[in-house]
Structure to design on (789 residues):
């Protein structure tokens, strides 16, 4: 009997082959056969091929009897197994490499000799056909390797299939062998001193150039030539992905564009009442662009999710750049009127960008959000929707801990060493900083093990560690999503995750919708029925009294413990100086106390101008309409874009490109090109000299820290709602906050003490009265909050 877990390399020739490979990987991950119970290939005795989604070797050269077996018969996360029948059903468009050190031919040859290997090769030929099978030979400098290669060549020639020279690579370059050893130790939970034969006996399993492969197989040039021919057959490229966004539910025989217009018209009348010429013009401009870009279906699908939320009484509010869109506002996807607040639509969508828009929906965290996610799964099917992944990379602490474990450092030393590294990693040169930390701990940096730690940690930084689940991104597809990308089960039951991260999806045109959990929405959603039931006050969070004096007086006192976005110590220190009086003041407050504006030294000038201690000045008179609301101090990304549009004649798409180019991932070449365009545009409008220099300097420095105005406005709306409830209904607000914990800045004990200062009675836990969650009770002197039992 041959060992389980043989690897079968499959190469993609066509788009159909790519979809078949995705389906195989998905089947292996979602419905994989448990270890040791696989379906056998007919006549071969070979175990089912194993799919390892992480690309990791599992001690491939050791005899089966000496391989460590998993403690559980269930396959590890990231691995999968498919049956021979599944492979046969999905063989079209795939090319099979059958030799390899870990492949089924090598396994059959070791266990049952050439006759067993011959039967296995016949099985592969039956499934793929002789024109889509090749036998691999490899040279890693191992004992017995040439005898195996000779047998494989005989089998291939007997069957009439080509022999190809390949390299079973575990790492990219020869110098990466030490990192490969570290990963081998981590997989085996051993140190370098005890890992023994689980390490590669030599470091030959790296990628080689065509010239290097030709030298390695100088006695067998036809194998190298055959490899090149097989590579040329694999013509599929990822831009050919068979991806389609799902169709929306349409009514009355309308197409998607007509349906979007009908829904937008109905929503606009509900939002605005009578539709003014200004609103009509903006809606027509947006709808025209949406139709030209082929996006009506996307907006309808997002609207379907919002309609589901409304039908179930689930709070849902779009945030981010979507709040710049009047269409999104009319559809109730967002809650901020972009026309009233003069938000820039091009920050959300423009013709030049050539990419899908990004709509983020905030939902109450917990069960209500999960209800929406499960609705999406039901609507688009088990294979039609999935969460996006998030690539978790090595940072300072994780790199030190894992390399240190492999090198045999004690837990005490690793704990103290990682504590000396900041949460975001090294501030400067990791080698120098880590050497200093070792010296501070009394560990000799020049000792060989310490030198290895320093070098390997520096090389491990920012490499992928594992796939996590994105906080809320969901990918949808018409038909089967696993035709486009492999799926795997998430750690959370009832969820499926694609094996790509959100950036991969964006690059390849795969559409995601972000369904994000927000604790304060959960608190607000719970507080409203509490107020209705216990105080007999009917509140509508969408129509709270605007600019309520009592609410703003509380905010100006910095009495904001528990209030969304303005409860931190830094916010509290600013509120008495800022003295908010109306909603837009809250928008500025949300945006200004952020690392970017603080580092950019924008906070003090704004507050000084607001207090009248400094004059309001503008880089150029033409920019006064752009910067008037923020007193000449640029705070928002939309302002950066408008400055470029007004001062240099940029289009909305060019302004968005400028914003991105000046962001955190700066390209010097791209920045220089855009700066030349900016200066040329300003010169054509008569803006030169110091005024032009000031504008360019302001844009390049501001782009790193600018906050989206639409995002700040969306958050300010929730901040105002939470402040209003705290000011007028403090008992219900406290009860809802405690039930939504963990969230915000403060421990429940702090929230309780703050509520006591506002004359809210907090009753102790009582075995006769307490429920699972906190609740409001009628006490002798009014309502009280009862702790959970």
């Amino acid at each position: 009997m041959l060992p389980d877990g043989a690897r079968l390399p499959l190469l993609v020739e066509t788009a159909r082959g790519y979809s078949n490979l995705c389906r195989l990987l998905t089947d292996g991950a979602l419905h994989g056969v448990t270890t040791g119970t696989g379906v056998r290939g007919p006549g071969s005795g070979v175990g089912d091929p194993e799919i390892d989604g992480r690309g990791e070797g599992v001690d491939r050269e050791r005899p089966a009897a000496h391989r460590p077996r998993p403690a559980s018969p269930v396959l590890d996360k990231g691995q999968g197994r498919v049956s021979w029948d599944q492979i046969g059903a999905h063989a079209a468009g795939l090319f099979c490499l059958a030799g390899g050190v870990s492949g089924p031919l090598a396994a059959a040859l070791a266990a049952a000799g050439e006759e067993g290997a011959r039967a296995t090769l016949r099985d592969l030929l039956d499934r793929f056909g002789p024109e889509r099978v090749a036998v691999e030979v490899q040279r890693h400098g191992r004992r017995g390797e040439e005898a195996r290669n000779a047998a494989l060549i005989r089998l291939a020639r007997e069957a009439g299939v080509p022999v190809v020279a390949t390299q079973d690579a575990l790492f990219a370059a020869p110098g990466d062998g030490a990192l490969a050893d570290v990963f081998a130790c981590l997989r085996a939970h051993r140190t370098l001193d005890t890992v023994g034969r689980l390490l590669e006996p030599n470091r030959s399993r790296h990628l080689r150039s065509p010239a290097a492969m030709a030298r390695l197989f100088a006695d067998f040039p036809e194998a190298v030539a055959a490899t090149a021919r097989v590579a040329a057959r694999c013509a599929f490229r990822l831009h050919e992905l068979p991806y389609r966004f799902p169709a929306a539910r349409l009514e009355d025989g309308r197409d998607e564009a007509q349906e979007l217009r009908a829904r937008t018209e109905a929503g606009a009348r509900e939002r605005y009442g009578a539709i003014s010429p200004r609103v009509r013009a903006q809606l027509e401009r947006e709808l025209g662009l949406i139709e030209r870009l082929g996006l009506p279906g996307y907006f309808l699908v997002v609207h379907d999710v919002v309609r589901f939320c409304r039908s179930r009484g689930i709070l849902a509010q779009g945030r981010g750049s979507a709040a710049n869109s009047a269409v999104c506002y009319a559809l109730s996807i967002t809650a901020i009127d972009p026309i009233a607040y003069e938000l820039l639509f091009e920050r959300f969508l423009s013709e030049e960008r050539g990419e899908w828009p990004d709509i983020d929906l905030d939902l109450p965290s917990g069960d209500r959000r999960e209800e929406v996610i499960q609705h999406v799964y039901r609507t688009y099917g088990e294979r039609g929707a999935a969460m996006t992944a998030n690539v978790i990379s090595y940072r300072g602490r994780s790199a030190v801990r894992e390399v240190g474990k492999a090198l045999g450092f004690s837990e005490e030393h690793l704990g103290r060493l990682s504590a000396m590294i900041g949460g975001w990693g090294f501030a400067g040169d990791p080698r120098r900083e880590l050497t200093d930390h070792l010296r501070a701990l009394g560990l000799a940096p020049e000792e060989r093990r310490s030198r290895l730690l320093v070098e390997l940690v520096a090389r491990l930084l920012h490499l992928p560690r594992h796939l996590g689940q994105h906080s809320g991104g969901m990918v949808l597809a018409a038909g089967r999503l696993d035709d486009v990308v492999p799926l795997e089960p998430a750690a959370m039951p009832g969820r499926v995750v694609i094996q790509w991260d959100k950036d991969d999806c964006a690059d390849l045109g795969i559409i995601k919708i972000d369904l994000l959990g927000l604790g304060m929405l959960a608190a607000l959603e719970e507080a409203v029925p509490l107020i209705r039931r216990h105080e007999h006050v009917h509140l509508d969070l969408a129509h709270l009294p605007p600019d309520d004096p009592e609410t703003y007086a509380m905010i100006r006192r910095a009495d904001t413990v528990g209030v969304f976005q303005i409860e931190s110590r830094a916010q509290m220190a600013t509120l008495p100086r800022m003295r908010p009086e109306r909603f837009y003041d809250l928008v500025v407050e949300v945006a200004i106390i952020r690392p970017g504006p603080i580092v950019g030294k924008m906070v003090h000038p704004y507050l000084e101008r607001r207090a009248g201690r400094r004059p309001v000045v503008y880089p150029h008179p033409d920019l006064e309409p752009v910067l008037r609301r923020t007193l000449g101090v640029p705070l928002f990304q939309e302002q950066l874009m408008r400055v470029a549009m007004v001062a240099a004649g940029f289009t909305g798409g060019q302004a968005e490109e400028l914003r991105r180019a000046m962001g955190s991932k700066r390209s010097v070449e791209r920045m220089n090109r855009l700066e030349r365009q900016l200066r040329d545009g300003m010169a054509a409008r008569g803006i030169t000299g110091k005024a032009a220099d000031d504008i360019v300097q302001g844009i390049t420095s501001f782009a790193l820290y600018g906050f989206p105005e639409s995002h700040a406005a969306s958050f300010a709306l929730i901040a105002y709602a939470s402040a209003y409830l705290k000011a007028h209904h403090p008992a219900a607000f406290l009860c809802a906050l405690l039930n939504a914990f963990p969230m915000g800045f403060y421990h429940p004990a702090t929230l309780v003490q703050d509520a006591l200062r506002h004359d809210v009675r907090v009753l102790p836990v009582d075995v006769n009265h307490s429920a699972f969650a906190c609740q409001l009770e009628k006490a002798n002197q009014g309502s009280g909050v009862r702790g959970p039992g």
Q: What stands out?
A: Confidence is low (pLDDT under 50) at residues 32-48, 51-74.
